[in-house]
Amino acid sequence: MVRAIKTSTIVQEDGSIHVDARELAPGTPVDVIVLRADGQDLPPIDEILAGYGGGRLFRTADEVDRYIRTERDAWDH
After folding, report:
1. Where are the alpha helices (DSSP H) in the chain?
2. Looking at the domain assignment, is residue 61 inside a domain?
3. What does the chain look like in DSSP terms, one character per residue?
4. Structural domain tally of the chain?
5. 69: domain range?
6. Considering only CA atoms, which of 36, 2, 1, 5 is closest in space to residue 20?
7. What tens digit of pLDDT does each residue of 4-26 get?
8. What is the pLDDT along the chain (77 residues), one digit of tens a residue?
């Protein structure tokens, strides 16, 4: 049984990463962890999200809870 595959690859222009895992059967569920090979840290998630349209919608867990509660209340009406 294959428990881990270590490989190196290059991030493509569109941000995608290709991993060849011929050792695994099609449909096998896997977890993927990406570590920078140069040892540098990845940018904080706040910086990553800031690059997307809309950025971060919620600043705290309480804001998320309020939003979900409001949405659920709207279902009942």
Report:
1. 45-50, 61-75
2. yes
3. ------------TTS------TTSPTT---------TT-PPPPPHHHHHHTSTT--S-SSHHHHHHHHHHHHHHHT-
4. 1
5. 45-75
6. 5
7. 888 888 999 988 899 888 888 89
8. 668 888 888 999 988 899 888 888 899 898 888 888 888 887 887 777 777 766 567 878 898 899 899 999 998 76
